[in-house]
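Chapter review: from sequence to fold.
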Amino acid sequence: MQNNTPWFNRILTSWLILLTPLAAQAEENHPRLFINQERINQIQWAIQVPQSHHQQAFLALKSRVEQQDWRVYDSDLNDGNWNYARSYLAKEAAFLYLLTNNREYAQVAYKAIEAIYNEPDSDNRLPDKGYGLSRATIGRNIALAYDWAYHGITPQQREYIKEKINIALDAWPLYQHVNLRNPLMASNWVAVCRGGELVMMLAIYGEAKRSNRYRQLKEWLKTHLSNGYGELGLSQEGIGYTGYGGIFLLPAVYALRSIGDTELDSYFQNIDFWKLIMYAGSFFMDEKTEREFLQSGVSHSDIIDEGWASLLLASVSPSQLPFYRYFYDYHMGVHAPGTPDVKFDERRGATVWSLIYYPESTPSFDPTGIYPQAISDQKRGAYFFRNRWKDENDILLSIMADIEHHGNAWDQSEAFQLGLLAYQTRFIGGPATERKPAVYSSLLVDGFADVPGKKTGQQKLFASFSDGGYAIIDGGEKYAGLGLSNVQRHLLVKFNQNTSTAIISTLDKIKDDETHYFTWQLNLGDQKNDGGIISTVSRENNLNIFVLRGKNNSYLKGWIIHQNPVTVGSGDPLQVQVSGSNTNIWIVMMLGQGIPPVATVEGTGMETKLKIDNTVIGYNSQSDRLTISNLVD
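The token string follows.
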């Protein structure tokens, strides 16, 4: 029966006005980002499979959350930065609520957020004030907790969190930092700050109200994707900063996909971030349970597990995903070293990504023999060599041309820089964030590693072979600044799959009108963490040699081929010093385990033929290439 009396209409209108906020709130469907009910159901099923990836990752996450103590997430209890850890607890607790529908976990998330504001840490790091990177970190985690725990907390608790998020979003346009102002936006600050803000906005359906800012954030991220990375995802700041920025950049791309906005996809899909980690990431950890990587930029050789490897699972094409799943299992997943509590991207509460994106129905294929043993990032001028994907004894090698530089972003002068991980040992590393000459694994001129403002080299050649590869790097602007007319570094890599060994040979061809003293140098290990390498020098068949001893009974033995007097220093860094103008520094190295071989030598200078077991290494002056061949029995 319809009632049209004036008093009834007035009451009805009043109730509609009162109910409008609740109606608007009801239109917000949660969870909105990264996961839906279908995926929740799939994860719940996968968790039941004994010893599966999902079961182990879930139990590790659950164990952390049920302690209800932010200290579990803080690697340094004395750093005065507790709000980071509280936000990680909130994120994982909210996700645990999604999987279990147990409201107690949602309340753990809310209480952690409440403590962030009511009992701030001594650094006073909050989403709406202070350091930009901490704003993004804490704010993004609070937003995810809001989205995921939405139905497990009270309406009043929702409004409390949403108000805090809006306050933070109001503050972002007022925040300024030099790394965010550069028009090329190559700094990881762009990925972290702009990506973090975007996810916060989307979690509370804020893109309509803040439409201008929403569009601006996407434009900034497009610029960052276009300028900040090479085709493998390597940034000038290094692989560690690619990974750090990636834990904000990738969620921003995926969050947009969650709401049907694919505007960033064409920029993101042009970059194979997952290939970079497959060639530069090892299958062993350091003493702090951090994964070991080939160094680049200002990064150290270890990367804290923060979710990058797990997030990349969602970036790989279906045809390549079985190979990345295999890599992931040995790098971060079920077959990785360590107990479950140090796997599955456990740092920063990032196991959530491992649970969301791990492809339990995708098969696992070993890339060895299918993927090339050498790949390049042409835009950045970076070249990676890997013999296999098996265990901690895999051989990973890199050389840098460093052909691009952008301002307002971390950078190092890396032309000629070498890196080597093998047999659970950081044989060659540096320079990370230091600038002193001793930390480089390159060529020093008159004791100098670079000149301020003169940073880049040039690529001359790259070739991938079935058993290794070849690269030639030109010294470019960097070595012109150091006073040389011309210098090139050749690198020849040949892997022996049967013996899991490698021959690595470098040739530095130097031309100048003046005499200089040159230092061919290796930073042994990493300046942050000593690699524990023992080095010795001696002579063999009239050649100076060095031997580096690493873990797992491994060695790197080098033969120094040069006509002029050579001085070899056995410390850290290992140094081979010569003087001259037009000169060549030719080093042949053998990497393996057990007793290093003894080489036989024929000829002198660039006519030398060095025989190691059944292999002969030489130089062809007509082709200007190092050569390697096997003798016929």
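Two observations follow directly from the output. The first helix runs from residue 6 to 26. Residues 100 and 568 are 63 Å apart (CA to CA).
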